[in-house]
Each structure stands twice: as C-alpha cells, then as structure tokens.
Amino acid sequence: ASNYSKAVLLKKARLIQQYLRDGLDVFVYFNNDANGNAVRNARLLKRMLAAMKVTAPA
Question: Which of 13, 33, 46, 56 has the most Cβ atoms closer than 10 angstroms to its Cβ?
C-alpha cells in the first residue's frame, strides 16, 4: 500500500505552485490501493494547495 507522508506531499505542493507560476499545466494522479490511500493523499494535497492559496489559472 502506498501512502505519501505530509512532508512528501508538501514538497509536491511547492512544485505544483512553481509549475503554475511558470505557466505550466499540472495534472496529479494517485494510484489507489486497497486501503484507499489515494483518496486521503489527494484530499490532503488539495488542502495544502488551498492553504498556500494555489489556484489554477483561468
């Protein structure tokens, strides 16, 4: 089962923030497992990005 730590997801959130600032398109995929970690990880990453005020450009 794969479950990303908060530290790893925070690094990813910072990368996403930079990519968006650079005008790049960003797509995030999590491979779900029997424990449902993908859903938890995606929700946590979404909350991290919101807290950082990261939004996709219009």
Answer: 13
Q: Shortest CA distance to 50 belongs to which of 23, 21, 4, 16?
A: 16
> How far from chain centre, in Å, is Cα 12?
6
How confident is the model over 7-43, as pLDDT tens digits?
A: 999 999 999 999 999 999 999 999 888 888 999 999 9
* Cα–Cα distances in angstroms (integers) from residue 4 to residues 8, 40, 47, 50, in the given order: 6, 9, 14, 18
Q: What's the rounded Cα separation, in Å, for the pair 21 and 3?
A: 27
Distance CA 2, CA 37 (A): 7
pLDDT band (50, 70, 90) for residue 1:
low
